[in-house]
Amino acid sequence: MRIISGTHKGKRLIAPKKLPVRPTTDMAKEALFNILNNNYYFEDTTFLDLFAGTGNISFEFASRGSTDIVAVDADYGCIKYIEKISKELDFGISTVKSDVFQFLGKTFFKADIIFADPPYDFTVEEFAKIPELVFKNELLNKNGVLIIEHSKHTDLSQLDRFTNERRYGGSTFSFFEQ
C-alpha cells in the first residue's frame, strides 16, 4: 500500500502479514480521494476511520493535512501498527482499540467525514447498524458524509440517508448524508 498524495506522496507502507485486514486498493482509494478533494479542504476536516485496519485511509488524510483524525479498530495489532506509522510520519493520529459498534454508541467525537471499512462478509443488517448509530448519535458535522466500503455484491441503497454509490473493481463506496 502507498500514500497517494500530500506530504508523504509515494511513501510505501508494508503492514505485517498477520493483521486481519483487507486494505482498500490504491485504485479505489485514489478514486475516493478525487471525489472528496472536490468537496473538502483536508486541513480543516475532522475524520473518523472505523474498522481502520492498517490505517491506510487515515494515513492518506493525514498526508493531505488533516490533523483531527481518530482511527478505531478492535484488533490490537492494527492499533499498534497505526500508532507506529503515525509516530514515524509525525501524523498524530489518535487510535481507539474498541468494537466499532460500542464506540459509536458512546463517543462524542463529531467528524466531517466518517469512513467505515467493515468486513465484506457483513450482512446488510450489520452494515445498517453503522449509519443507524452515526445518525442517531449525531456524529456527523453539518454537511458531513458517511462512506461505507463494501463488496460490489452488497447493496446498501435501501438504507436510510443513502445518497449514492461508486464502484471500483470489486469495491463499492456507499455515501450517506444528513
UniProtKB/TrEMBL annotation:
Keywords on record: Methyltransferase, Transferase
GO molecular function, one term: nucleic acid binding
Keyword Lyase part of the UniProt annotation: no
Gene Ontology biological process terms from the UniProt entry: rRNA methylation
Domain of life: Bacteria
CDD domains tied to this protein: AdoMet_MTases
Name of the molecule in the record: 16S rRNA (Guanine(966)-N(2))-methyltransferase RsmD
